[in-house]
From TrEMBL:
This is Protein N-acetyltransferase, RimJ/RimL family. One of its GO terms (molecular function) is acyltransferase activity, transferring groups other than amino-acyl groups. The keyword Transmembrane does not apply. CDD domains: NAT_SF (cd04301). PANTHER family: ACETYLTRANSFERASE (PTHR43877:SF1), AMINOALKYLPHOSPHONATE N-ACETYLTRANSFERASE-RELATED-RELATED (PTHR43877). InterPro entries: Acyl_CoA_acyltransferase, Bact_Acetyltransf, GNAT_dom. Residues 18-171 form the N-acetyltransferase domain. Keywords: Acyltransferase, Transferase. It comes from the Bacteria.
Length: 199
């Protein structure tokens, strides 16, 4: 999947220069520290709690197996964000990818999330997927605004779908994006390089 984008890449944001690169086993400790510093409420959109070492280790095994591609955003060597593209080639939805994204509290509102979402979206466009989905608790206004601005639209509301550590239940919204249509439009405009950048 990564053959269509090359890393590391650097982007300038209000939080300073951010480096994007692919996550691997050697990042385990740094990503665990990043996840543990996040409010657990901000992890409710994920199927498992990534601040637990076992979950993180399983996630890295899935990266190694090729169904997950995770991009880290680093500032001065520290992990400040993570954008993930999840595919399941053995399911009935091999054409669908899910984007998962989280940014550390201290750099929020400074453009890191936007840059990371664009980078993850470009990765998804270049990987041949036809549809993308993203999900979050309904109170994540920034996440909803961000993905809507990329063309995602609400497709489902799952009431009381996740339960936090205090036992409170929260609704999840699922947004979808027909990327096959975007790819076809870009090709019609003669812009194939926009979906398979050479790096
Ligand atoms: C979603 C998230 C990654 C955004 O990261 P970020 O670095 O703060 O994002 P940015 O600074 O690039 O802001 C993104 C956009 O959201 C908008 N935004 C920020 N805070 C907002 C808020 N409270 N309400 C509405 N919009 C908001 C910004 O205006 C910005 O749009 P712009 O680029 O047009 O100005 C971050 O809030 C997060 O980690 N949330 C918790 C995890 C989560 O729920 N992830 C969603 C699942 S995929």
């Amino acid at each position: 999947m990564s053959e269509t984008r090359s890393y590391p890449r650097r982007v300038k944001t209000e939080a300073g220069e951010i480096e994007f690169r692919l996550m691997s086993r050697t990042d385990e400790a740094a990503v665990l520290a990043f996840a543990k510093a996040l409010p657990t409420h901000d992890l409710l959109f994920l199927p498992r709690n990534i601040s637990q070492p076992k979950v993180l280790s399983a996630w890295i095994s899935e990266i190694e197996a090729g169904d997950i591609t995770s991009l880290l955003a680093l500032k001065g060597g520290a992990v400040v964000g993570c954008g993930t593209l999840v595919k399941d080639s053995r399911s009935w939805s091999p054409h669908v990818g899910e984007i998962r994204m989280v940014v550390s509290l201290d750099v929020r509102g400074m453009g890191v999330g936007r840059a990371l979402s664009q980078e993850t979206f470009a990765l998804a466009l270049g990987s041949g997927l036809e549809k993308l989905s993203v999900q979050m608790t309904v109170d994540q206004r920034a996440a909803i605004a961000l993905f809507e601005s990329l063309g995602f639209k609400a497709e489902a509301l799952l009431r009381d779908h996740v339960r936090d550590v205090d036992g409170r239940k929260h609704d999840i919204v699922v947004l979808g994006h027909n990327v096959a249509q975007v790819r076809a439009q870009m090709e019609a405009y003669g812009l194939p390089g926009a979906v398979t950048p050479s790096g």
